[in-house]
Amino acid sequence: MEHAIKKADRPPYGLIAVLMIGAFISFLNNTLLNIALPSIMKDLNVGPSTVQWLTTGFMLVNGILIPTTAFLIQKFSVRHLFLASMGLFTLGTILAGFAHAFPLLLTGRMVQASGSAIMMPLLMNVMLTSFPVEKRGAAMGVFGFVLMGAPAIGPTLSGWIIEHYDWRMLFHFVTPIAAVIVLIGFFVLKDKKDKVEIRLDLFSLLLSSVGFGGLLYGFSSAGNKGWDSPQVYGTIIVGALSLVSFILRQYKLDRPMLEFRIFKYPMFALSSVISMVLTMAMFSAMLLLPIYVQTIRGISPIDAGLLMMPGAILMAVMSPITGKLFDKYGGRVLAVIGLIITTVTTYYFSQLTLDTSYTHLMILYSVRMFGISMVMMPVSTNGLNQLPARFYPHGTAMNNTLQQVSGAIGTALLVTIMSTRAETYATELAAGAVGNVTATAEMQQQVAMQAMLEGINDAFLVATFIAGVALVLAFFIKRAKQAEDHLEGKPSGEKIVTKLADH
């Protein structure tokens, strides 16, 4: 018992450091790609609705695989899971780097996703089991600072690489770094896991894959096929029914793949909903802004990256500060202030014009990121704090699953709104120009640009409403205390004991 207390007093910093480096490079890869989307569209001759699959497809695989991470964390050691996840990530990066057609590039991204899906829940679980509740805000703040460093350097680095090299160099740049991280993990991580007799319910995995996959595919296809297409509403219906079946099945299993009983803890349930809603709103600027500044404004990739850098740096710097403020004041004050800022700035993004100044865009994006930095980590940490320790793997898996799924649905929904509204505006503007016999190719291009701008503005307007919903919910946040662990008639052997050794 005394030994266990000493272990808890001394978190495994070496193990956490290796996991953070792996998570950092995985997160960096995502931020590198956003600025590259317009270049990929041009090079591979695909439209916005197709290219967004590089983001949505990545999240789709995450959404399908993350529910299994609660099982994997209980079954395998940190070492085995880390090496498997970084190995898959490296393989996917190599594939994407040599892609000369969109399907191969998408395949590479999905293989990458199969690796990164394990990484974040694994790291979050180690953090939760390593730090007591009263120190968790500060620990999560440092964790946020490291991860937010990726968005700080990612867009600018991506812009510089694209300006001087082919977009494939983004993947070639990451490959050797990922390979070195695999080697470091192989030699540094030495933790062992007691044998745990649990099995993965394959039928649950099938229902989960069809459920999340159907929803995401349906929302993502709407941009190309329209909401009235049987392929769109058919897959959404099948996905929804499969998801309901998956949830009902989890309640019947002694060892569920994903434990939905954790939603009986009110602060965890509330934090999950707020995180989902905010993630949907957050992806609007991350995806739509690069398209606006490069496609409509003609701003170079490196300048587009520099535009987003101050906001990302601000978010990274604020992360440890909000962690300490969370430990002192709780999550509600931070979340309310942060969401007011996020909602107002998102609204201003819905008022873009063909000549909105570069400085205005940079300041607006930076203030928006400042608002988001006050919400994400405090809200999710507050929710996880209420869970008994044995539910940590399920809590982190659930949070990550819901964020990936809501992010993918949000991305697909907003890109679909942008595309469909742009088509509508293009038709209306073209009809108005029909009487003009002198309509030139230049005028037609101007019409297309104006239509896309209006589509982007409409998408941001929807994102404003979504952020507003999160703001209303934030007023109901209370400081969470860890709930007592009632095993509800289950054998005491079901308690999960994680042994972490610092090597």
From TrEMBL:
UniProt entry keywords in alphabetical sequence: Cell membrane, Membrane, Transmembrane, Transmembrane helix, Transport
GO CC, alphabetical: plasma membrane
Lineage of source species: Bacteria, Bacillati, Bacillota, Bacilli, Bacillales
Protein known as: MFS transporter
InterPro entries tied to this protein: EmrB-like, MFS, MFS_dom, MFS_trans_sf
Assigned protein family: Belongs to the major facilitator superfamily. EmrB family.
Organism: Domibacillus mangrovi
Gene3D superfamilies attached to this UniProt entry: MFS general substrate transporter like domains, Multidrug resistance protein D
Membrane-topology annotation of the record: Multi-pass membrane protein
Gene Ontology molecular function: transmembrane transporter activity
Source species, domain of life: Bacteria
Subcellular location per the Swiss-Prot or TrEMBL entry: Cell membrane
Transmembrane segments: 12-33, 53-73, 80-105, 111-131, 138-157, 169-188, 200-219, 231-248, 268-293, 299-317, 329-349, 361-380, 401-419, 459-477
Major facilitator superfamily (MFS) profile domain sequence ranges: 15-482
Alphabetical list of CDD domains matching this protein: MFS_LmrB_MDR_like
Cross-referenced NCBIfam families: efflux_EmrB
